[in-house]
Amino acid sequence: MVDAVVSFALNRLTDFLIQEAAFLGRVRKEVQWLIDELGWMQCYIASAEEKQADDPIVRKRLNDITKIAYDTEDVIDKFILQVHDGNIPPTRCFPSMSSCVKCRKKVNLHDIGKDIEELKIRINDLPRVRELYQLESSRIKGEGSSSNSLARLRELRRTTSFSVEKKVVGHDDGTTSLLAKLLDLDRRRFVVSIYGMGGLGKTTLAGKLYHHLEVKRKFNCRAWVCVSQDYNTHDLLLRIISSFGFTTKTTKELKRMNEEGLERYLHGSLQGRSYLLVVDDIWKKEAWLSFKRAFPDCNNGSRVIITTRSQEVAEDSDQRTFVHKLRFLTFDESWQLFCEKAFGNPNANSVEEQLKTLGMEMVQKCRGLPLAVIVLGGLLSNKTQQAKWKAVRDHIWQNLKKDSIHIPNLFVLSFNDLNYQLKLSFLYLSLFPEDFEIKVNQLIQLWVAEGFVQQEENRNMEDLAKDNFHELINRSLIQIGKISWGRVSIFRVHDLLRELAIEKARELNFLHIYDQMKHSTGNSSVISSCRREALYFKTENCLWRQQLNPSLRSLLFFDPYGYQPSEIYIWMKTTQTVAEFRFIRVLKLDHFITNGTLSEEIGNLIHLKYLGLRESYIRHVPRSITNLQRLQILDLYTSNTDTEISNEISTLQELRHLFGRFVGNFEIDSLTKLQSVKYVYCESWIRINTEKLSNLRELWIFGWRMETKREFCFDSIAKLKRLKQLVVLLDRNDCFASLQPLALCSNLIDLRLYGKIEKLPENIHNVLPNLECLFLEDSYLEDDPMPLLEKLHSLMILNLGTRFYSGTNLFCSAHGFHRLEILRLDDRDGLKEWQVEEGAMPRLRGLSIPKNYKLRIPKRFKSIPPPAECEFECKFEKYYRGATMYV
């Protein structure tokens, strides 16, 4: 964990040196020395982190290094503040003043030199203190040199075929489908991959299949091997041979053989046999590939079962793979499993009602994670007093962690396997409240503002952040909540993983959570120096602690209890208080300002990169906002309030995302880094010179505010070469001009139009060659649109809303819509018949048609289930034309 903090500080310091090299002068060598020392610390941390659980000396040393890394970041931010206080307008992330003589007089390099000298003394003191107190780690003294906590954990995790639980509750559906794959008539060898979050029961399910009577009958020989993170191919081959029970060579002979020899022996022994191999707990696909060649495809129905936490490993382990994602248990399955463990039978009919109620409440908290349910049931199995059950319920995760070594370590191996950016990114998720639905786009923007994503050449930071997000999904550390237009839009973190992440984050002084409902606790000195704070409120008159935190970098307000308190913003209304928060980079105050006033003091927070004021009714933005030269995200969106923003917004050159309902002179022409604008009225949009908005990727436009009939022209859109998503919502009286100009937007993949369209272009497949998602509503097309839309070769999601077509019949040809997966037809009044030739829409997996719809559809489509509503969800707040829209 410490490596993440040090790596983050090292990257900031390196960027600082590069951008300020000319100006730092004599201090430059001191900064470089500090960079070198942090680099050496990284090398030490790599070998020390695994030892800290067993060694208090190592733990103390890592704690000292963490403080040094944090203080290094403070030195950088203090320098930037000093530049700003000299009335020097910064122009970049680290404002270079090398060409300004006046700046050199105002910025005193002595201060930064003095701060670095103090850090230097502390760094040099690390070995001196160890020598002074004759401190040596236990491993140096020779104590416990053969093992440590992680090594013991890995040994405890090693499974065998005889140790797995054969009686499995739940997953009957998965067992049936997997068993069918193992027993089917396909004679080629293939891999069955089972993946999912740690504790879901992957090993248990594999064991159930391994010991199934029909499986034993089919396969001549079976073997089980546990791989884990630190594997040795030679050792794995020996254990596989032993598990198969091959005895033509002695153990001594086998141990003397090299890897190639073992592979040849195993390959020869398996020739002509129908075998089953279970490879449990694979972390890297290279592990299976390292000994895969020892398993011949004898064309006799042999199978390999792989269990892993990684989706990538599951999908890419072999050319012929059947992938099964293990789901969480339903509540009924969880309750049955709990009763088995707590009461010794699958029901609780004889249990007193109070205990049953408490048990159900706790099982619900486990959120379908079998390991948590099993440990909970075992913990309560010898407790019969209601008071003891209540004590467990009130501190459920703490009790489970104490009762099982597997619970606290459920997350350790996955976490340690992450790089430093992913570690910081995952720990950050613990700031969000329990059971919170986290919006992916907002999280991506927060990660970028926090600095968790490093710029790469020719790569957008938001894209890199999305890669990190999908990597966390791949590693089964987060749960997908909703999919919108083919992309994950909302996700959750399991409560248990969140609790474990909070514990890790607090060890690093990474965050503090003030939960009024739970009476936040913690060491006051630690809280007053933590880097990030989340505040959860339950009443309007919430009293936040009076203690201020000058080290705070992020402050996020949440309302998990649904009260939406007012006047929380009062803390920022005095200059003295603002001065205490001048290092802050992220300020999320969604829903927490009800008076619609944004104080001029906001301009003093010059480090600010993310300002979230959603649903805060801000009508006017103060001119002091121009001081926020590092601002990347400005969210002013309120569902029923228009915002007029001053012309000075054009000075915010770092701005990447701008959200609100913007009216008036919207001067964003010069914001070349702008990527998202949601929303702007047509009157304001047509005044903008869009040629300079070369990086704009998402644009949402409202119709005309005046009630005169107008036409929306796409000529200005055509200049946005990198645009990927375009949403335009017009009034029913308005209409769209020709879509032909969109041909210049070759990157457009998501188009949603609400308004009348006279006619679709005949060459629409050339106009929109890369379009993946299309929404049409109120378009009143006179001609059947299907013959043209079916030529969109990349189209995967088609949402045809109400009044999209004024005709009665639709026709799809045999070769149309060859990539379409999701289709929604919602024109409930006019349509009568839908003709689809055989071969059309071969990949269709979701079809939505309103209930009581009289439209005649082909028989083969009647069995296609409706997709989840969220798959083509496009929410707008219900205030405009009765539609729903959401940023």
From TrEMBL:
Record keyword Repeat present: yes
Where the record annotates domain Disease resistance R13L4/SHOC-2-like LRR, the positions are 576-849
User: Domain Disease resistance N-terminal spans what residues?
Assistant: 5-93
Could you tell me which Gene3D superfamilies the record lists for this protein? 1.20.5.4130, Helical domain of apoptotic protease-activating factors (1.10.8.430), P-loop containing nucleotide triphosphate hydrolases (3.40.50.300), Ribonuclease Inhibitor (3.80.10.10), Winged helix-like DNA-binding domain superfamily/Winged helix DNA-binding domain (1.10.10.10)
Keyword Nuclease present in the record's keywords: the answer is no
- InterPro entries recorded: Apaf_helical, Disease_R_plants, LRR_dom_sf, LRR_R13L4/SHOC2-like, NB-ARC, P-loop_NTPase, RX-like_CC, Rx_N
| GO BP terms, alphabetized | defense response to other organism
Task: List, in alphabetical order, the Gene Ontology terms for molecular function in this entry.
Answer: ADP binding
Record domain Disease resistance protein winged helix: where: 431-501
Write the record's keywords in alphabetical order, separated by commas: Nucleotide-binding, Plant defense, Repeat
Q: Which residues form the NB-ARC domain?
A: 178-345
What PANTHER family would the database entry show?
DISEASE RESISTANCE PROTEIN RP, DISEASE RESISTANCE PROTEIN RPP13-RELATED
Q: This chain belongs to which protein, by name?
A: Uncharacterized protein
Q: Which organism is it from?
A: Dipteronia dyeriana
High-level lineage: Eukaryota, Viridiplantae, Streptophyta, Embryophyta, Tracheophyta
